[in-house]
Amino acid sequence: MLTKSGFSHIGSGDYRTVYAIPDAPRVIKIAKNPLGVKENLAAIENWRQAEQLNVDCYLAELHEYSSDGWWILQEHISETAPPTIAPLKDTLTEAGVTIAEVNRHNVGTRNGSAILLDYGGSQ
C-alpha cells in the first residue's frame, strides 16, 4: 500500500514495519499489533526522557507520532554502526536514560557519531 505511494520498505519485525518517506530524511514506524503500539509508545516516552536529560542528540529525532501509538515519524539515520557503541551506551546510562536495548543492531551514525535508531524498549 505505502510502496505504491513512493515509500520504500526498510524493514519489518514481529511488531512494527518501517518505511522510508519519499523526498524526506524520515522513516515511519507502523505498529502491526498491540505490542508494536507498546514499542512506539515506549519510544515516545524515551524520547521525552532524553530531551529532559539533554541527551536527545544521541537518538534519531522523533518528529511526529499518533497519540494512540500506532505510528511514529523519526529521522532517517544511516544504519551503519560505528566501530564501537560503548561510548553511546555509557553516555545514555550515565545520564539516566532507561532504554533497555542498545546494541549494534539499533545504532547508526549521523555525521560520524553513534545515534540510537530504535529506542522503543525500556528497562
Q: How does this structure look, described?
A:
By secondary structure, the protein is an alpha+beta fold. The chain has a single domain, classed as Phosphorylase Kinase, domain 1, CATH 3.30.200. Helix content is 24%, strand content 27%. The chain contains two helices and seven strands; from the N terminus they run E-E-E-H-E-E-H-E-E. Strands 1-2-3-5-4 form a five-stranded antiparallel β-sheet. Strands 6-7 form a two-stranded antiparallel sheet. Strand 1 and strand 2 form a beta hairpin. The longest helix is centred in the middle third of the chain and has 19 residues. The N and C termini lie far apart (34 Å). The model has no long low-confidence stretch (mean pLDDT 91).
CATH topology: Phosphorylase Kinase, domain 1
The termini sit apart by 34 Å
Main sheet: which strands, in order across?
1-2-3-5-4
Number of helices, counting only DSSP H or I runs of 4 residues or more: 2
Radius of gyration: 14 Å
User: What is the CATH level 1 assignment?
Assistant: Alpha Beta
Per CATH, which architecture? 2-Layer Sandwich
**Total count of domains:** 1
Query: What overall form do the CA principal axes indicate?
Result: globular
**Helicity, as a percent range:** 10-25%
Number of strands: 7
Q: Secondary-structure element order, as H and E?
A: EEEHEEHEE
Poorly predicted runs of 5 or more residues: none
- Report the sheet with the most strands, covering strand number, pairing sense and barrel closure: 5 strands, antiparallel
For the record, what is the CATH homologous superfamily label? Phosphorylase Kinase, domain 1
| Content of β-strand | 25-35%
Query: What is the mean pLDDT?
Result: 91
Structural class per helix/strand content?
alpha+beta
